[in-house]
Amino acid sequence: MTPFLVSSDLLALFFNEPSAHTPVTILGQPRNIDLLGCQCSVDSVVARAIELNDALSLPKGEAMRKKSLKLLLATCTATAVALASPLVAFAEENEALDAVAKVQATLDNVWVLIAAVLVIFMQAGFALVEAGLTRAKNVANIFMKNLMDFCIGALLFFAIGYAIAFGGEMTGAGKFIGGDGWFLAGDGVFSYGTLDKFVFFTFQVAFAATAATIVSGAMAERTKFKSYVIFSAVISAIIYPVVVRWQWGGGWLFQLDTPFHDFAGSSIVHMTGGMASIMGAYFLGPRKGKYGADGKPRAIPGHSTPFAILGCFILLVGWYGFNPGSWLGADPVIGTIAVNTTLAGAAGAVIAMLVTWLKDGKPDVAMTGNGLLAGLVAVTAGCWVVNGLGAILIGLIAGVLVVYSVMFWDKVKIDDPVGAISVHGICGAFGTIAVGLFSATESEGVIKKGLFYGGGTDQLVSQVIGVVAIAAFVLAASGILFFVMKKTIGLRVSEQEELEGLDVHEHGVPGYINDDMVIR
Hints:
This protein has helices spanning 8-14, 42-54, 63-132, 139-166, 197-218, 225-246, 266-284, 305-322, 333-360, 365-379, 388-411, 420-438, 458-487, 495-500, 502-507; strands at 24-26, 29-31, 33-35, 38-40. By secondary structure, the chain is mostly helical.
């Protein structure tokens, strides 16, 4: 917008007083103009022009004076028009900015809802991975548990969990547990930035379902369905929301002098599921036939490697909602987050393949898939704050870690059929701590640079505090829950049911049916 310039001498001649400024209303707003140090308004310019027009009846000897006044009158008229034009443009510019803000808010909501759908679709990926790595006689049970993780979890997170995670004041007891906005009702319902509360809830409930379904794989092939459903309900309604409160909900971990940082949930989501998996597998005990008479672990192959790898691909796709979606807005930075997610996952898969190839003489397909997931889990905490090199290193370390972690849990007789403890629990903890080492970003009140980038140990200490606190709480809470259920309704099916398969005994029909099979 180009300003209308008038000679200061001409203005001095035009105005008797240098600060004449009668208010004028343009588009409903009073406007005064300061032009070259002389404050005036459109009305005052026009009024002065009329006065000058009356003054043009001058003696013939003053022709030059009359010519000057005519020139001045023309200038005044042009000035009046010019002074009004920027004000109209200013108002139009404000309206344009408001329109841009509305478009941005709409884009934010659309993107986060799409991201939520991608995360919900990850339930299909988890179901396929778990079903593929277990035996055919339990496939329907696996899919049923994953389905109920989302459905029961959604209802309870709506009624209770969301309020615990995000509701109420963040002081006193509110640092540890929320308590407002039950059933998404009332004035206390939390939302974030430009997001509609229902969009934000949908995104968050997808994460709650993920934390619950991680445990399904570790407890596969020997768990009573009713006991699993109770556990799924409790983790979605209480255990997971409390962990969310501590950081994403503005609680005590977020309020540390150097805030604990878990951008998209390496510990808040994945490690929570992984720690609960340890307790579930421990109280259940190993599957029949997992250990020989000498106590050494035996491999129990899954029935469909293609299922498992297809599930890994679906989870990879879903992770582009999980991590970039956690920015909670449509912004170019989601591209950086997506690249870091890609690099870490790819590095994890490649290194897991190489480790198993060197160790066993052949590349293990299932373990390579778990390497992909390990890299994705590990980078989830720092996907916004690390650079590409950091993402690759995190993925490489996680890919090695998952291979040897699976071997460790087998040796201590914690039977995890799909490697959920290693992928989500161990690599989730590592990835969260790695933020304190590899963070290349500093943002006041949010994140500091990591140890390897000149930031000292402040962020690393906060990361360790957060990981230890979350792990301790989830281990204790889930351990108490599993202990109580084991002593009351029971956790494990009978030996006969386990040997014959849970599909028939728990659900009344096998997952795979031959054309000539008749169900009585």
